[in-house]
Amino acid sequence: MKNGFFLTCLIVSISVFSVSLPHVYATERKGLSNEQTIYVPAYSHIYSGNRERPFLLTITLSIRNIDPEHQIKITKVDYYETQGKLLRKYVTTPVLLNPLESLRYVVPEKDKSGGSGANFIVEWKSDKYLNTPIVEAIMISTKGQQGVSFTSRGKPIISRHE
Questions:
Q1: N or C: which end of the chain has fewer CB within 10 A?
Q2: How many structural domains comprise the chain?
């Protein structure tokens, strides 16, 4: 009788756990957010040679809304120099970015004010929890037969998750 009672309790416990388990996982939203502040490393120049000669680069900041259903609102795109001084505010009024749409902001090669430690701060918001955008800097330049190009991916420093 004790074994039957134990078996019944075990089956009821597993059933209750199994029924509640999908609900736990269904409400989890790993990787989804509705608001972020993103730090993006960038380089207006890098150094080459023994004498540390600067190699100037064009920077393209790319913001990609990878959510296929929902738009996001870009509320800040600020460009900073190596010592952390704000150089330029690219967004003065919020910009709506539709599903799968991309934005770009360019710092010309001749603008070396950002230095080798330049960076962007990007802020975005949404009314819905969604796939977080891809934000990256692409640096490129050519001189004679030498070409340099590389990317730097943004890192969320403040996020709001459900």
A1: N
A2: 1
- Provide CB contacts within 8 A for 93, sequence distance 6+: none
Per the structure, the complete domain to which residue 127 belongs is given by 32-160
Q: Confirm whether 1 is domain-assigned.
A: no
CATH of the domain at 51: 2.60.290.11
Q: Is residue 156 included in any domain, yes or no?
A: yes
Taking only the tens of pLDDT, the chain with its 162 residues reads: 555 554 444 444 444 444 444 433 333 456 799 999 999 999 999 987 767 788 899 999 999 999 999 999 999 999 999 999 999 999 999 999 999 999 999 999 999 999 999 999 999 999 999 999 999 999 999 988 888 999 999 999 988 765
